[in-house]
Design brief:
single chain; 3-stranded antiparallel β-sheet; 10 helices
Length: about 260
Amino acid sequence: MNSQIPALRLDSVSKRYGNNKVLEEVSLKIYPGSCYGLLGNNGAGKSTLINMIIDLTRADAGRVEIMGKNYGHSPLWIKSRIGVLPEQELLNSEFSGMEQLRFTGLLYGLNETDLILRIKTLFNFFFDDIADLDKACGTYSTGMRKKLGLIAAVLHKPDLLILDEPFAGLDPRSSQSMIRFLRTYLNEERAILLSSHNLSYVQQAATDIGVLHNRKLMYSGPINEFTGNGVNQVEKSLFDLLNADEKSILDLARVLS
């Protein structure tokens, strides 16, 4: 049994909006050293779950703990220990890349000298031209904004990094850079929660997998177990777990033939 304090712990978390149940008694633990790939169809509740983890919405029942603490007692401490890349990045279009990142770093109280070094080092890794750092965020492409958002999320070296669709808008080369970065960033004191529809990239980055379906967590465990020690791709294992309706597919094929 793992004796570490989980980086993230959910105990029987449930959420509804009106009469619509979104999540039902979801429990999981993500330990330092893990990159947890959260999978599920559109509408499965992934974004709602992430919003509860980052305190944008509150659970109706259950408990959310980050590094053994909860938002009711230690909200500022928790928010200083997590980094978030939301699906829709929150950048000021009028800021230059440097101004956006410097503003973010100063909010976390980072030393100016250390902050500028981190900004330039990370920017050089993700971008081809350092001159882009001085361009307005409003002129950035979708992929550039995504990469800048990730840099902003990791400037303070958070213990729990939460990424919602980090590969969306990235070309294959940038996606591989993202995977290399995540592998480098992950260590025995840090954990990553990664929600993505790009299963091939999840397979390259994740150490563990969770599957949300019909409001519940249907699977949570090591990726090797999920894929049968690599016998299957993540895509096939997910397809099998969710019992995709082969009859409907055959009926559709007949109609289209």
